[in-house]
From TrEMBL:
Residue ranges occupied by any Conserved virulence factor B-like winged helix domain in the UniProt entry: 224-281
Protein name: GntR family transcriptional regulator
Protein species of origin: Flavobacterium pokkalii
Pfam families, sorted: S1_2, WHD_CvfB
Similarity field: Belongs to the CvfB family.
Sequence ranges assigned to domain Conserved virulence factor B first S1 in this UniProt record: 4-68
Length: 284
């Protein structure tokens, strides 16, 4: 069975004038769901019977077609895409395919504009059986059943940024919040992907996340980060216990509290010296 909007591992069945026909003989012996790989995507060398990985989507006539192009987004996933043009139907976004993906007006969180990028979710419209995208991402997320634990490492996608904090999508399933006063990187933007940690799961099912491990576990990776920065700076950083939090944030993208814990651990291991003008890497 073909997986529309996904990568498929298919067998080359026959070579024709228009391209290769691919299928899954084991699960579809009658060839009901064979799909065409047009000539322009056919590899220079191939053999009948060998397997090939292709992306399958719907062409202009809503027929399944295979391609070796790599899409920017897969079915039931999120991605930041650019609007190519807008017409009376909706906005059409570049997703790496020849045919742009449609975001109907009713699926736009706010009116989309040509040339701008928006975070969208790709899904199969049950009414039309067409692949479409939506920037109303909350409808595809749920915090009702949360199979996560405090301290667990997770994948994050930045959804949107508010005065309170950075709204994120957790593991492409749940909504979460990263508080602004705990973020030490001003370059974070909508669509950014990063690793994070579950900080708290509240009784109302709201989830707080952090970019660094909490408590003692956070010392080791941050200590390594400081060592890397020292090595890149010829063994000296003009930072110490008395440095302004903003200076620490600018150089190391971490809080002063985290910085003090990390250099304390490094000092105990005799890897650095802490002096009035900064910290020095102890040469082995």
């Amino acid at each position: 069975m073909l997986k529309i909007g996904k990568y498929n591992n298919l067998t080359i069945l026959r070579d024709t004038k228009v391209g290769l026909f691919l299928g899954d003989p084991e699960n579809d012996p009658e060839g009901i769901h064979d799909v065409l790989l047009p000539n322009k995507y056919v590899p220079n060398e191939f053999e009948i019977g060998e397997e090939i990985v292709v992306f399958v989507y719907l062409d202009h006539e809503q027929r399944p077609v295979a391609t070796t192009l790599e899409p920017y987004i897969l079915l039931n996933e999120f991605a930041l895409l650019r609007v190519n043009y807008v017409n009376k139907i909706g906005a059409f976004m570049d997703w790496g395919m020849e045919k742009d993906i449609l975001v109907p007006f009713k699926e736009q969180a706010r009116p989309m504009e040509k040339g701008k990028r928006y975070l969208v979710y790709l899904y199969m419209d049950p009414k039309t059986n067409r692949l479409v995208a939506s920037s109303k991402t909350n409808q595809f997320l749920s915090n009702e059943e949360i199979a996560l634990e405090k301290g667990e490492e997770v994948d994050l996608i930045v959804s949107h940024i508010t005065e309170i904090g950075i709204n994120v999508i957790i593991n492409e399933k749940h909504k979460g919040l990263l508080y602004k006063d705990e973020v030490y990187d001003d370059s974070i933007r909508t669509g950014d992907r990063m690793r994070g940690y579950i900080k708290n799961i509240r009784p109302d099912h709201k989830i707080d996340v952090a970019l660094q491990k909490q408590g003692y576990e956070s010392v080791e990776p941050n200590a390594e980060k400081i060592l890397d920065e020292l090595r890149a700076s010829r063994g000296f950083l003009r930072l110490n216990d008395n440095s302004h939090p903003e200076d620490i944030k600018t150089v190391l993208k971490m809080s002063k509290k985290t910085f003090k814990k990390a250099i304390g651990a490094l000092y105990k291991e005799k890897l650095i010296e802490i002096k009035e003008d900064g910290i020095y890497l102890v040469k082995a």
